[in-house]
Amino acid sequence: MLEFILLSAQIALIVFEGSTTQFLDIVAICIMHVILLLAQMLLFYWHADEIRHESVAISEALYETDWYEYNTSIKRTIHIMMARAQRPLSLTVGPFGDMSLTTALKILKGVYTYITFLQHSYGNKFGAKDK
């Protein structure tokens, strides 16, 4: 949750700063900063999502082996491994939740919400009228 709030707010503030300034060099810096933050977020969340999907495939790979030809001890071990592998392995952000592409999309939705709020507040503060 903390990462969600901080990353969303950081991206939203940078986008808002870039959209409200009149200096092209600051706009370019803001664009590059947002691109780098989004790339960093995508790298972390994409690979965390891949780990989750691949961990589920372990159970299927174990089942496709010739497990029935082994002795009872090995069959039991493979069975335990298959049972454990059916629960997805996931990376978490502390106690705040799993890292996945779904979480990354929630962060981007939060960014949009923050930007909309800032634009609405900024417009009302400086005398812009609502339509």
From TrEMBL:
GO terms for biological process: signal transduction. Keywords: Cell membrane, Membrane, Olfaction, Receptor, Sensory transduction, Transducer, Transmembrane, Transmembrane helix. GO terms for cellular component: plasma membrane. It is a multi-pass membrane protein. Pfam families: 7tm_6. It comes from the Eukaryota. The chain crosses the membrane at residues 26-46. InterPro entries: 7tm6_olfct_rcpt. GO terms for molecular function: odorant binding; olfactory receptor activity. It is found in: Cell membrane. This is Odorant receptor 24. It comes from Apriona germarii (Mulberry longhorn beetle).
